């Protein structure tokens, strides 16, 4: 005798599947794909770190620690990087400062697959011996490749073992997560090299003259100091067509506090720890350099003006005498630097300024 199943029983698997699908959709909506959750493993205590207090806006820019009784928004905009979050170091160099106190920690932003770019930077302005008599420590900042994470992992581990200069955390390596990269660098300095005199953050597509920077602007060491190309009285771009689009939900004010342009800026070592600390209390935005300005404002610290033109946000044609009096020039690819760097390092010719 055949057993006749009730129509309700036949529908049960379908209903369960639909319910599970609904839960997955809801979870996806609450955790957009601008970042990835920390990978399996890590310290359980770190994973239970609280999300931090709320904050408020004051005076047209981000305020301080804010009112801890104010509840954060129930959802996060997809362009807003999740922070604070217990991101885990996949590659780390926690002992780099054990036997030295560097004068300058150089943090270079690169993508996971840019092996050739990192190699070129090591041979040019990122050479730790580029400033005679000055201790420089170089580190590259990476996230996780959105597609080729597993394929790149053994290559990055090999590169890390060879050069000991790679920091990587488990967030997606995307443009909107550049803020997370810089905060990773500030975290590393705070925890593993707090006595460094200075920290410089640089993009991979710049020309840097660290010798001129150190000799002209960093001696003697300063406190609460940050300089670069200074932007003032600028605000978020609200048009979705822009690469630098920042919606009201991410940053509600019309202006940013003064900040240093992202391709290259330098700050005193004590300020790195302060920025990392105050960042735990603020709402992070997807514009990395502007967020550094927001952190400074919350700390009550002002940027320091640099002489006009020594930090160049636009490409200018290479000329040895001119570049010898500059700190940074944007839009120089690492492979281009390999061609001009040997001539730039030759004994100085007579230059008329």
TrEMBL record:
<keyword id="KW-0472">Membrane</keyword>
<feature type="signal peptide">
    <location>
        <begin position="1"/>
        <end position="29"/>
    </location>
</feature>
<keyword id="KW-0443">Lipid metabolism</keyword>
<keyword id="KW-0732">Signal</keyword>
<keyword id="KW-0735">Signal-anchor</keyword>
<protein>
    <recommendedName>
        <fullName>Hexosyltransferase</fullName>
        <ecNumber>2.4.1.-</ecNumber>
    </recommendedName>
</protein>
<keyword id="KW-0333">Golgi apparatus</keyword>
<keyword id="KW-1133">Transmembrane helix</keyword>
<comment type="pathway">
    <text>Protein modification; protein glycosylation.</text>
</comment>
<dbReference type="InterPro" id="IPR045821">
    <property type="entry name" value="B3GT2_N"/>
</dbReference>
<feature type="domain" description="Beta-1,3-galactosyltransferase 2 N-terminal">
    <location>
        <begin position="84"/>
        <end position="105"/>
    </location>
</feature>
<keyword id="KW-0808">Transferase</keyword>
<comment type="similarity">
    <text>Belongs to the glycosyltransferase 31 family.</text>
</comment>
<feature type="region of interest" description="Disordered">
    <location>
        <begin position="35"/>
        <end position="68"/>
    </location>
</feature>
<dbReference type="GO" id="GO:0006629">
    <property type="term" value="P:lipid metabolic process"/>
</dbReference>
<keyword id="KW-0328">Glycosyltransferase</keyword>
<dbReference type="GO" id="GO:0008499">
    <property type="term" value="F:N-acetyl-beta-D-glucosaminide beta-(1,3)-galactosyltransferase activity"/>
</dbReference>
<dbReference type="InterPro" id="IPR002659">
    <property type="entry name" value="Glyco_trans_31"/>
</dbReference>
<dbReference type="Pfam" id="PF19341">
    <property type="entry name" value="B3GALT2_N"/>
</dbReference>
<dbReference type="GO" id="GO:0000139">
    <property type="term" value="C:Golgi membrane"/>
</dbReference>
<keyword id="KW-0812">Transmembrane</keyword>
<keyword id="KW-0325">Glycoprotein</keyword>
<dbReference type="Pfam" id="PF01762">
    <property type="entry name" value="Galactosyl_T"/>
</dbReference>
<dbReference type="GO" id="GO:0006493">
    <property type="term" value="P:protein O-linked glycosylation"/>
</dbReference>
């Amino acid at each position: 005798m055949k057993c006749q199943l009730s129509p309700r029983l036949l529908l049960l698997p379908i209903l369960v599947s639909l319910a599970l699908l609904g839960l997955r959709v809801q979870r996806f909506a609450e955790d957009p794909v601008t970042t990835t959750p920390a990978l399996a493993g890590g310290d359980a205590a770190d994973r239970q770190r609280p999300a931090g207090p709320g904050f408020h806006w004051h005076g047209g820019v981000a305020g301080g620690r804010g009112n801890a009784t104010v509840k954060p928004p129930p959802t996060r905009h997809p362009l807003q990087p999740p922070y604070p979050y217990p991101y885990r170091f996949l590659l780390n160099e926690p002992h780099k400062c054990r036997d030295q106190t560097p004068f300058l920690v150089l943090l270079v932003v690169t993508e996971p697959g840019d092996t050739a770019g990192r190699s070129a930077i090591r041979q040019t302005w990122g050479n730790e011996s580029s400033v005679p008599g000055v201790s420089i420590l170089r580190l590259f900042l990476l996230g996780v490749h959105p597609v080729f994470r597993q394929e790149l992992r053994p290559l990055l581990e090999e590169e890390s073992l060879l050069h000991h200069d790679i920091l990587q955390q488990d967030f997606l390596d995307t443009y909107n997560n550049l803020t997370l990269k810089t905060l990773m660098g500030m975290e590393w300095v705070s925890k593993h090299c707090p006595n460094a005199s200075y920290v410089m953050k640089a993009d991979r597509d710049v020309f840097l003259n660290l010798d001129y920077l150190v000799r002209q602007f960093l001696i003697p060491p300063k406190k609460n100091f940050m300089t670069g190309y200074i932007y003032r009285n600028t605000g978020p771009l609200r048009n979705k067509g822009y690469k630098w689009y920042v919606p009201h939900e991410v940053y509600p004010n019309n202006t940013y506090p003064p900040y240093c342009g992202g391709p290259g800026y330098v700050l005193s070592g004590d300020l790195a720890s302060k920025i990392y600390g105050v960042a735990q209390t603020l709402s992070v935005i997807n514009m990395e350099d502007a967020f550094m300005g927001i952190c400074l404002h919350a700390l009550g610290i002002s940027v320091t003006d640099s002489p006009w033109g020594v930090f160049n946000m636009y490409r200018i044609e290479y000329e040895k005498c001119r570049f010898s009096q500059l700190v940074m020039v944007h839009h120089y690819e690492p492979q281009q630097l390999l061609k001009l760097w040997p001539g730039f390092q030759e004994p100085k010719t007579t230059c008329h300024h």
